[in-house]
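User: Working on a comparison across species. This one is tRNA/tmRNA (uracil-C(5))-methyltransferase from Pseudomonas mangiferae. Can you predict its structure so I can line it up against the others?
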Amino acid sequence: MSRPSFDPSTYAAQLEEKVTRLRELLAPFQPPAPEVFESPREHYRLRAEFRLWREGEERFYAMFAAGDKHTPILLEDFPVASQRINQLMPRLKAGWQASPALSFKLFQAEFLTTLAGDALVTLAYHRPLDADWQRAAEALAADLGVSLVGRARGQRIVIGRDYVEEALDVAGRTFRYRQPEGAFTQPNGEVNRKMLAWALDALGQRQDDLMELYCGNGNFTLPLATRVRRVLATEISKASVSAALANLADNGVDNVTLVRLSAEELTQALNEVRPFRRLAGIDLKGYAFGTLFVDPPRAGMDTDTCELARRFPRILYISCNPETLAANLAQLQDTHRVVRCALFDQFPYTHHMESGVLLERR
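Assistant: Here's the predicted structure for tRNA/tmRNA (uracil-C(5))-methyltransferase from Pseudomonas mangiferae:
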């Protein structure tokens, strides 16, 4: 993870560059002007990962410029990270400095926090973790008020919980999420909340069913399920599926069927290429799908999934890579048109951007 070039005075200019870039990429599809959702200028990132650099008897938080793994940038704080991370950084450092059991062959520290104030720290080691380590780690976790995970080859020791708890207010309702250690979560909590509200508004109130691909821990699933009759959601990651099922139960959302399949596998099932045991008892033909919701990885949707998307009257697409979004839209443009467009500045001070489009059948 390279350190962003952090200068809040440049924020407006860098955001305008992203708007221009998104307009250019999507121009062939004649979208409306993008709705633009800004990020906080600082303390917006809810997770951070640091290598530890040793000088003498002291270890420092370190990052490296892209392509240079030998020249560390030593850090005492990290302004783009949440206030909670910045509060924990010096206290965690003091904890490992004071304890040989915690500092011996420690090489990485990771932080996962939430807008709700929860925090989890992961410490990674190049040696087995023993009883002395666990006693010291338990004391440190209690002192910091966090959950703590120790990782070494073949070991994963959890002190407290292996997830954090988030609470997001969307359209007048609070949704609560378990976000597991090591699984994907949206890094910018405030922008994520804006993204959820936009997706909910774009979907509208529906009387039909929703199919969701790449549902993760249910980040979008929970609010979107309140606007449709039923949801069929898919996700391939076991950790994310487990978290999503817990989140559905915790929020009392009972109109979602979640299946651990990839988008490609579900496409095969719908095309009756081959059956899947995980779909046993699910009547796919009984759904009346009106909208497909997708939030794919950076590679975007594969060709077959794009062909599947053509079947839906409406496609709600959240993208973390505008280039692959544009490539997917090129495949869909003869059957669908873009009726809404948005830019979500999840990653200030970098070239990365999150965007969203709503497509309707021509």
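For your comparison, note: The domain at 47-164 is CATH 2.40.50.1070 (OB fold (Dihydrolipoamide Acetyltransferase, E2P)).

User: Helpful, thanks.
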